[in-house]
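Structure in, sequence out. Go:
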């Protein structure tokens, strides 16, 4: 199986049309069709459902696409890793980040580092903490910005100075907006839009001293901007961090801290004993020195 053929397959899967994919790949349609059929023969299964004007993926095709994307990403990363020259720091540093006020510190580090090493590029991925950590473990990301707690067996990290406080995001015309802070008893009577990350959800339920079934939860979220739209629509109150909210300021909404206070901090982490590219290694050193 060649990497080139995997890229052919991914292009066809993304375009949903062999003719368009052939144009993008600068190959003839018969050549592309033959390569795909040979790939299916090699895999021993059908990956594509061919229609008159479009192609779709079979169940096996969806699974193959996920694995092929991982392989191509790793190959691209490997290629970039060895583009570093002995006398020039260059290449790409891949960073995953959750929504947190610690992102401002990370951005400052990135700006400072690129001023010193202008041939370095950053590839920034936004997602849930669990996804970021999984991608770091798989070698698809070099570093990640996530919230505590951290598995210290798997990761090394630097704790950032900013403190992040849990509270609720509500509309300004909501009854609770009249208060400066709210209590658990205050919020339990309203629909609560909760974080979807399992660790965060369990931590909140433990803090609230209740079971998930005891709450009215109309939705879960992984990106706060989506939760903010639901709050704005009147669907409920979103349990969130004030740091994440500061990135998505909305004049129609307001944040109220929940008492007793529950505070956490964000960290920049990386995989233990990981062999970095020269650029990534220097960036980690920069973070550790601050």
């Amino acid at each position: 199986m060649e990497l080139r053929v995997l890229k052919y397959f991914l292009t066809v899967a993304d375009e949903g049309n062999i003719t368009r994919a052939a144009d993008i790949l600068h190959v003839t349609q018969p050549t592309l069709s033959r390569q795909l059929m040979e790939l299916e023969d090699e895999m021993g299964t059908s990956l594509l459902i061919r229609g008159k004007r479009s192609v779709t993926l079979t169940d096996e095709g969806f699974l193959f696409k996920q694995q092929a994307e991982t392989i191509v990403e790793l190959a691209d990363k490997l290629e970039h890793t060895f583009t570093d020259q002995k006398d020039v720091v260059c290449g790409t540093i891949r960073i995953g980040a959750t929504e947190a006020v610690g992102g401002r510190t990370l951005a400052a580090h990135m700006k400072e580092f690129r001023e010193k090493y202008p041939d370095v590029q950053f590839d920034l991925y936004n997602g849930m903490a669990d996804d970021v950590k999984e991608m770091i473990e798989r070698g698809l990301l070099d570093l990640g910005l996530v919230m505590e707690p951290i598995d210290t067996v798997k990761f090394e990290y630097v704790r950032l100075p900013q403190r992040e406080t849990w509270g609720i995001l509500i509309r300004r015309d909501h009854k609770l907006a009249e208060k400066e802070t709210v209590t658990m008893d205050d919020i339990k009577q309203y629909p609560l839009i909760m974080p979807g990350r399992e660790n965060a959800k369990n931590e909140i339920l433990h803090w609230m001293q209740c079971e998930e079934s005891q709450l009215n939860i109309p939705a879960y979220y992984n990106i706060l901007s989506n939760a903010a739209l639901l709050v704005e629509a009147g669907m409920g109150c979103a349990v969130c961090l004030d740091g994440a909210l500061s990135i998505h300021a909305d004049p129609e909404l307001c944040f109220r801290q929940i008492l007793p206070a529950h505070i956490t901090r964000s960290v920049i982490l990386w995989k233990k004993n990981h062999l970095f590219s020269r650029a990534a290694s220097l960036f980690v050193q920069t973070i550790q020195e601050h």
